Amino acid sequence: MAGLEPTPFIWFDGKLVPWDEAKIHVLTHGLHYGTGYFEGIRAYKCANGQSAVFRLRDHITRMLNSAKILALPCPYTVDELCKATLDTLVANKMESAYIRPLSFVGYGGLGVYPGDNPINTIIAVWSWGAYLGKEALDLGVRVKTSSFSRIHPNTLMGKAKACGNYVNSVLAKVEAVQDGYDEALMLDTNGFVSEATGENVFIVRGKTIKTTPLTSILEGINRGSVITLAKDLGYEVVETQFTRDELYCADEVFFSGTAAEVTPVREVDRRTIGKGRAGDVTKHLQQEFFKIVQGTNPKYQDWLTPYTF
Ligand SMILES: *Cc1c(COP(=O)(O)O)cnc(C)c1O
Fold first, then answer.
1. Are 116 and 122 in contact (CB under 8 A)?
2. In this predicted model, what pLDDT tens digit does every residue of 31-51 receive, in sequence order?
3. Which residues belong to the active site?
4. Cα of 132 to ligand 1 centre, how many Å?
5. For the CA of 223, the nearest atom of ligand 1
6. Which of 36, 92, 267, 300: disulfide with 142, CB 3.0–4.6 Å?
């Protein structure tokens, strides 16, 4: 995973400011208490030479739902944030990009109650290749079931892409990486498979694809795209709970997410999944997914917001 390569501008509360000047005070509420919410979106260079953002409106709508869940209202509308995202991509002349909108409780009081503190919003864009490594997309990743459970909705609410929620993901990710794995698989508090630290999970058996129900997971946009795509390609897709022993015995396991795209899983808890490399169904879905984001499948044109600069 590459470090952050600066781009010229970050959108900050309505203005494009130079990357190095997009700064906040160290006593910002969100820094202390994780009071904020964000999105991860990708823009791709399309086969026709244009660029397009993948499911922009769906991501921004989810961001405003995160605001609602956290009761920390975002000062901008969906339309305003969609436009700001495109403006930021254009200002930075990004042919493809990872896009990170974030709203957070700003500087003011430091009581837990956010009070009258402002809510600040930024949109940053940068180049970010394959999240789990280029070879991960071809060969698959090695995964460890975490000793940490996925957050329970009575403690933190996993449907919000809330800053504070990611302490749970960081605990699981650090444990997995320190133990020599690429990614962590988290179970819910009842012991059923939930999701990874920033990816939803699918298992394949024959022509049937299973993914976890929405109860304990972040409702991934890519999860939704994969479900739609797989059904359109004739696979049976079932949203149902399953356990890690069922996952161990699946023909294929894969992750979906904006950062990870469609990433095969080749090993879980030192058990080889299927043939120990990307399975045929995973590869099929991955290839079709990349065709869609690159604009070569007209059926899913609605998912793309083109932009030019
Ligand atoms: C962002 C995220 C996902 C993936 O969501 P996408 O909308 O597909 O990018 C899955 N799980 C968690 C915990 C996430 O934060």
1. no
2. 999 999 999 999 999 999 999
3. 161
4. 14
5. 8
6. 267
